Amino acid sequence: MKSPLILLMLFLLPTNSIAAKSPPNVVLIMADDLGYNDLSCYGSVMIKTPVLDQLASEGVRLTSFYSGCTICTPSRIALLTGMYPVRCGWQGGVVGYGVKAQNGLSAETTTIAEVFKLAGYETALIGKWHLGDSAAHSPAAHGFNTTYFIDKSNNQTSKLWRGSELIADPFDNRRLTELFTTEAIRFVESNHDKPFFLYLPLSAPHFPAEAHPEWNGKTKLGAYGDVVEELDARVGEILNTLKRLRLEDNTIVVFLSDNGVEPGQKQWARSTPYRGLKWSTLEGGNRVPCIIRWPGTIPARQTNSHLIGTIDLFPSLIAACQLNSNEIKDTITNTNGVNIMPSLRRRAAGRPIRSTLLFWHGWGTPQAIRSGNWKLYFDEIKELPDSKEGPVLINLENDPAEHTNLSQQNPQKVSELLQEARSQLTRIQGSSIPLGGPVNIKARVPAKPKWLP
């Protein structure tokens, strides 16, 4: 029996000290089509995002972070599986546009939600799914216990689902972020006494951007800016919920975007100083904001410029939560991601953990590889005139807008990166599986990269 003194000491311990002994929770928030320069902590002067600025000051702001692809569906495949999307059968396009609605994420894949569920976590998908419309490809079929979602982008569907129940048709696009936030808070409140994994892929600021009545006219960037500022405030509501429930210190919060600026929104959205839009492998197409906060573990007020991809979040979050069963270890080994947590835990980040990263166009053609500050395009890219004549080599440190081709001055580097890209793509092709659902004999076949036979 414990002594009275020990009982008194336990009683006096702060609640969050006790909670810290339990596995950390994870809140994974993904914006839709948010450009690199659309948050004030990433340089925006037209859009004010005080909540996300504060989140960045309390954790780490990643400045060389890349989404899983340049468009919605494959980017989500990468996030949930830790694999390059082509390994899961993606060949270009998104569900409902290039990918048939009856196809989607294969049951042969293992998602991060399934891993957390196996480890005893409560799991939730609240927001935009976009990985298949049928029951076999629903979020519930891929490890999510609680689901509240639209199955495609907000310009492709009018239906809002809770589980298999249709709860709105049409939904009010102006209020989607509010609805998703309310549902996320409800999930956190209902599961505050157990570990949880909340995946919150918001539909904002994907087109059509329509401002919530309370944010309408708040910015000088029309509905787009209004929607982003509402998004920021809604993230604040979730963070306040964590704080109110004393979960803040034991919750890993990740905020990122699924790809770069949508071409139809380039009048308002920005990826400065980078060129390129959604669908493109230029930096603006998939270099995106990413902020990670884990109080007491990831030092505050960090900026990390290491090469990091969305595929790295899968093994990193699993390692952070110490999900160490043999089955889980085998799953991590099969991903293309690397555990970046060791570099984030140190204030001096040390050497980069990831050495290279591959890039695909939105229609499925592999087009580039990055290694350190070098980026080699091995396909013809319309924005890069020199790519008509051969590979284009860019030094991103000196040329973030990708204007100057250095391939003639660095033939050995070009040769090395071509060889590395060819080797990696061959291995990826040898370990890929088909998309889930019926075989589409009319499926578009991606073009082959021009300078990588």
DSSP strand content: 15-25%
Instruction: Enumerate the spans where pLDDT stays under 50 for 5 or more consecutive residues.
Output: 1-20
Distance N to C terminus: 73 Å
How many DSSP-defined strands?
18
**Which class of the largest domain in CATH terms?**
Alpha Beta
What topology, given as strand order, has the largest sheet? 9-8-7-6-10-1-11-12-2-13
The CATH topology assignment of the largest domain is Alkaline Phosphatase, subunit A
| H and E order | HHEHEEHEEHEEEEHEHEHEEEHHHEEEEH
* Helical stretch tally: 12
> What characteristic shape results from the CA principal axes?
globular
Any idea what the CATH superfamily of the largest domain is called?
Alkaline Phosphatase, subunit A
Report the average pLDDT across residues.
Answer: 93
* CATH architecture call of the largest domain: 3-Layer(aba) Sandwich
Tally of domains? 2
Spatial extent as radius of gyration: 22 Å
Provide the helix percentage.
Answer: 25-40%
Summarize, please.
It is built from twelve helices and 18 strands.
Highlighted features:
single chain, 453 residues, alpha/beta, Arylsulfatase, C-terminal domain, 2 domains, 12 helices, 27% helix, disordered N terminus
Can you characterise this structure?
By secondary structure, this protein is α/β, with parallel strands linked by helices. It folds into two domains: 22-345, Alkaline Phosphatase, subunit A, CATH 3.40.720; 356-430, Arylsulfatase, C-terminal domain (2-Layer Sandwich), CATH 3.30.1120.10. The protein is built from twelve helices and 18 strands. It has helices at 4-12, 15-19, 50-57, 72-81, 112-118, 176-190, 222-244, 283-286, 313-320, 326-333, 341-345, 411-430; strands spanning 25-31, 60-62, 65-66, 94-95, 98-99, 122-128, 146-150, 160-162, 165-168, 196-201, 251-257, 290-293, 302-304, 308-309, 356-360, 366-371, 374-377, 392-395. It has a ten-stranded mixed sheet with strand order 9-8-7-6-10-1-11-12-2-13, sandwiched between helices. Strand 15 and strand 16 form a beta hairpin. Helix 6 (176-190) runs parallel beside helix 7. The longest helix has 23 residues, at 222-244. The radius of gyration is 22 Å and the shape is globular. Mean pLDDT is 93; it is low at 1-20.
